[in-house]
Amino acid sequence: MKVISYNLRKHRAVGELVHLVERHGADVLCLQEADTAGLPETIAGLHLAEATQRNRLGLAVYYRENTYRSMGVRALSLKKSLHDRVLKPAEERLLGVRLFDIDDGREFIIGSFHAAPLTALNRLRRHQIRTALDELAKLGEGLPVLMVGDYNYPVFKERLGQSIRDQGYELNLSDARTYTRYKFFRGHYDFATSIGFEIDRVKTLPQGLSDHLPILVTARLPDMKSAAGVDEVGVESVEESMDASVDASPAGSTERQAS
């Protein structure tokens, strides 16, 4: 599965989406800072699952309709920064979608996330991230979760990584920085956080009209058939060992165990 996450910078880069999806064969598209009223229902074969409604600059998730089926959506407000309270750029900072893989018969959860801006403290952003992951999990207990987006966390990522690992999730950065507008603040802003997925690669794509560079996450669910095969072999080995033990035991021992 290929997932693109892109902060459009106040909707400026919306014209690039068709090319991005077609060029990289995206299955899921997660957007931040989008004018949701101006988004189309489809983008290069991807269908709009949901977009936030209460944001001046909102979130959206698209998915490939011939591959997945939407089973549920949830938009959520998170703890607000002073910037949010005064300017109100984003009421809802998380959009989650539960998807069903038609061919594989399995479900998972995708989240588009946009953390509070740099005027807020890292402590607040960590709180938002923890809450976002907890809320996404409520879309389907035990299902794999992949949350991508603009985390606005350019420094001290070690502490963020530890916080995420404490929740049982993995944090994956892309292979190159994703923000270039201001020299001092350049770095990795756009991440992927997951549980139950195997992340093969997170690649930073070429820059367009946004100050953020899009990221391409290549992820896959663990092969359940292989896991089941290992379990079956294990059961057979245990049964063979038990049979051998019974054959080798003295006469009457089985009778005593049964009595």
Helical segment count: 6
Along the chain, the helix and strand elements come as EHEEEEEHEEHEHEEEEHH
Largest sheet data:
7 strands, mixed
Low-pLDDT runs of 5+ residues are 229-259
Report the average pLDDT across residues: 84
CATH architecture level-2 label of the largest domain: 4-Layer Sandwich
**Rg, please?**
23 Å
State the secondary-structure class: alpha+beta
Helix content: 25-40%
Question: Judging from the principal axes of the Cα atoms, what is the shape?
Answer: globular
**Using DSSP, what is the number of strands?**
13
Q: In CATH's first tier, which class of the largest domain applies? A: Alpha Beta
Share of β-strand residues: 25-35%
Question: Under CATH, the topology of the largest domain is which?
Answer: Deoxyribonuclease I, Chain A
Task: Give the neighbour order of strands across the main sheet.
Answer: 3-4-5-2-1-13-12
User: What separation lies between the terminal Cα atoms?
Assistant: 56 Å
In CATH terms, the superfamily of the largest domain is Endonuclease/exonuclease/phosphatase
Number of domains: 2
Which keywords apply here?
disordered C terminus; 7-stranded mixed β-sheet; Deoxyribonuclease I, Chain A; single chain; 2 domains; 6 helices; 259 residues; alpha+beta; 6-stranded mixed β-sheet; globular
